Amino acid sequence: MTLEQFKKKMKKIPDGPGVYFFLGAKKEVLYIGKATSLRSRVRSYFSPDLAKARGPLLVKMLEKATTIDWRETDSVLEALLLEANLIKSHKPKHNTDLKDDKSWNYIVITKEDFPIIRYVRGRELAMQDPDDYLHTFGPFPHGLQLKAAMKIIRKIFPYRDDKCVPNSGKPCFNRHIGLCPGVCTGEISKTDYRKIIRRITLLFQGKKLELIKSLEKDMKVAAKTEDFEEAARLRGQIFALQHIQDVSLIKDEYRSTGSAVGNTRIEAYDIAHMGGTAVVGVMVVVEDGHPNKDQYRKFKIKTAKGGDDAGSLKEVLTRRLSHDEWPMPRVIAVDGSTAQINAATKVLEEHGIQIPVIGVVKDEKHRPRSIQGKREVIAGRERDILLANAEAHRFAITYHKKLRNPLRGL
């Protein structure tokens, strides 16, 4: 699909949330994505630096695409759920090529008297018996946003998790904060809990209107039997569904594409630990010369051995690249020299992504001594690279100290 073809459709593409499709010559679905702003997100695919920003696989997809289609949604949360349902039904080649099946994210509902709703990764799901689950929803490409979405859903429809023991008489932690309906304390029957599960199921299936009608019907029954407390609770759920507060899922599309003309995004990474213990990694972002603290990210190191800074950096970058909803940078800056540069470059190559990696070398007092990497990449960006590196070091040390001393800053 050419830029000229896209421009003809541009005025028709809405500016609100939804799901978009790139279609091939036979109207087959090549790729599915979701967006806070459909117009802004689709526009990003026609920027001159798409290959660097999003990788060669998406460039190949765009070469095959002949048209674009979309579906609007009332919220970003509904776009996220719709995206997963459509990927499951269509299995677009370029979605599956971009991500290993085992790294997808899923939500499962167990087969029990009081079903548990659980977040699982594809590799975990592949090892389990599908008959253990009442429902499986997914795949969800965006793990971080899925977790944020589940927090929103659980506030509307409290449910049981693994830490809740049915009818134990001891309220679980989530019961205290209103996120468990009282399975642990015996306050809710199996029948009423099943209603909650059905409501969550309808929401995940994209049947919001059917869900609202069901809630309205139950609310009228509760009011008729003078169960006014239940009627008020159901009214609150209806209101919440009609006014979904999904600010945590909303991204500024200019920032989230990372490919707008003139946008210079640098991501810097640093590892912090003390003698190989409490190892953490961080990602910070500098855009157009200014720190974008909303997009800073923290990582607890899970697999790399303590003291292996290059291994920890590879783990952080691998986990970062699993979030294709995060913007891609123009430049990646790491704290260190050849070992760190090579570690980061290897991870990028394994993902088919070409982004230049720059290393900031420090002296014995941890002051910048030199910047290593391609001169043409560094030229004109020295200040921004050093700013990003300094922010990464500050952020990593702060996070590390907080883990070592949880009371710090209270």
From TrEMBL:
<dbReference type="InterPro" id="IPR036876">
    <property type="entry name" value="UVR_dom_sf"/>
</dbReference>
<dbReference type="GO" id="GO:0009380">
    <property type="term" value="C:excinuclease repair complex"/>
</dbReference>
<dbReference type="Pfam" id="PF02151">
    <property type="entry name" value="UVR"/>
</dbReference>
<keyword id="KW-0963">Cytoplasm</keyword>
<keyword id="KW-0234">DNA repair</keyword>
<keyword id="KW-0227">DNA damage</keyword>
<keyword id="KW-0267">Excision nuclease</keyword>
<feature type="domain" description="UVR">
    <location>
        <begin position="209"/>
        <end position="244"/>
    </location>
</feature>
<dbReference type="GO" id="GO:0009381">
    <property type="term" value="F:excinuclease ABC activity"/>
</dbReference>
<dbReference type="InterPro" id="IPR050066">
    <property type="entry name" value="UvrABC_protein_C"/>
</dbReference>
<dbReference type="InterPro" id="IPR001943">
    <property type="entry name" value="UVR_dom"/>
</dbReference>
<feature type="domain" description="GIY-YIG">
    <location>
        <begin position="15"/>
        <end position="96"/>
    </location>
</feature>
<dbReference type="InterPro" id="IPR035901">
    <property type="entry name" value="GIY-YIG_endonuc_sf"/>
</dbReference>
<dbReference type="InterPro" id="IPR000305">
    <property type="entry name" value="GIY-YIG_endonuc"/>
</dbReference>
<dbReference type="Pfam" id="PF08459">
    <property type="entry name" value="UvrC_RNaseH_dom"/>
</dbReference>
<dbReference type="Pfam" id="PF01541">
    <property type="entry name" value="GIY-YIG"/>
</dbReference>
<feature type="domain" description="UvrC family homology region profile">
    <location>
        <begin position="265"/>
        <end position="348"/>
    </location>
</feature>
<dbReference type="InterPro" id="IPR038476">
    <property type="entry name" value="UvrC_RNase_H_dom_sf"/>
</dbReference>
<dbReference type="InterPro" id="IPR047296">
    <property type="entry name" value="GIY-YIG_UvrC_Cho"/>
</dbReference>
<keyword id="KW-0228">DNA excision</keyword>
<dbReference type="InterPro" id="IPR001162">
    <property type="entry name" value="UvrC_RNase_H_dom"/>
</dbReference>
<protein>
    <recommendedName>
        <fullName>Excinuclease ABC subunit C</fullName>
    </recommendedName>
</protein>
<dbReference type="GO" id="GO:0006289">
    <property type="term" value="P:nucleotide-excision repair"/>
</dbReference>
